[in-house]
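Dear Dr. L.,

I hope this message finds you well. Following up on our conversation about the binding site, I have prepared a predicted three-dimensional model of the protein together with 3,4-dihydroxyphenylalanine. For your records, I am including the exact sequence and ligand specification that went into the calculation, followed by the structure tokens. Please feel free to forward this to your student if that is useful.
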Amino acid sequence: MADAQFDPAAVTDEVAEGIEKIRNASTLEELKALKAQFAGAESAMGQASRAIGSLPPEAKKGAGQLMGKLKADFGRAYGLKENVLQAQAEQSKLAAEQVDMTLPIERRPLGARHPLAKLMEDVEDFFVSMGWQISSGPEVESEWYNFDALNLSPDHPARQMQDTFYVKGNQTKDAAGFVGSNLVMRTQTSTDQVRGLINRGVPLYIASPGRVFRTDELDATHTPVFHQCEAIAVDKGLTMADLKGVLDKLAVAMFGEGARTRLRPSYFPFTEPSAEMDLWFPDKKGGPGWIEWGGCGMVNPNVLRAADIDPEIYSGFAFGVGMERTLLLRHDINDMHDLVEGDVRFSDQFVMGE
Ligand code: DAH
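The resulting structure of the complex is given below.
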């Protein structure tokens, strides 16, 4: 690089020009470019600094002092502007990233609990509030618990009342003649009666809500899988009046004040006497009226005997209600399909203050 002349006036002017431009710069990029232009190797300041070396000794001091002042002035102007522009850049970055907490957010659609699940819980709460226990037996059950223990012999015509899914074997006894080795999908939650008696003993107060299975076709009021709640109480001195009292209380818990039940003589193998139970439903569509709701009766002595309980000492009552039926009545739903399709728009209608 050719040796430059040291020209104090020219370098002072150029530095003044540079400082002026720095003061007017509006971005950090612009500022950096000005630094390269006015303080870089090719700038007047750069060239003058190099030229000092070839000045006569007596001129060096004054030239050095001038250059020191110019560099300091330039550096100060640069530093001040850099601070200002950096603060501005930060501000606008923060402004761009600002989140408006008052804007409505995009919500994901919520699911809704199935009304049947809620009903099952309501029923459990009812029994727990009376001090009863909640029990749940297996859904794949031995024929013995499902039928035999409930006083249905293998050739009992009542077995045809409930079309059964057989899981293993078919009506064959094992070597010991014990039919319990055949497995079925339980056709009723009454299955839990003798399990409860054997596992928990007496006095016994249990409710068994759960799924049951029958080979029904799916139509407006039937599905092959549905839910029941069985209740059985066995103690000393229980009578049909106790049964009626619990049924009326359950009716009110499920259907509100004014609901009550009535019994009509009927037949079930596991109860004697047995009754069909009707519900007086004040909010029935088309006006209050009686609707068939479940089955009930006093526990048949043979059922107690199956669990080695002495029917001379203990007596009991039992009843069973269909949960889907209860739900259809309670909410005036006409079609079982709505219950099994799992459409959240259906369930959503029943979301209540839980
Ligand atoms: N298990 C019966 C059914 O599925 C309902 C029932 C009737 C249960 C009478 C009972 C009873 O406990 O005593 O249809």
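In brief: The pocket of 3,4-dihydroxyphenylalanine is lined by residues 188, 190, 230, 268, 271, 295-297, 318-320 (CB under 6 Å).

With kind regards,
A. P.
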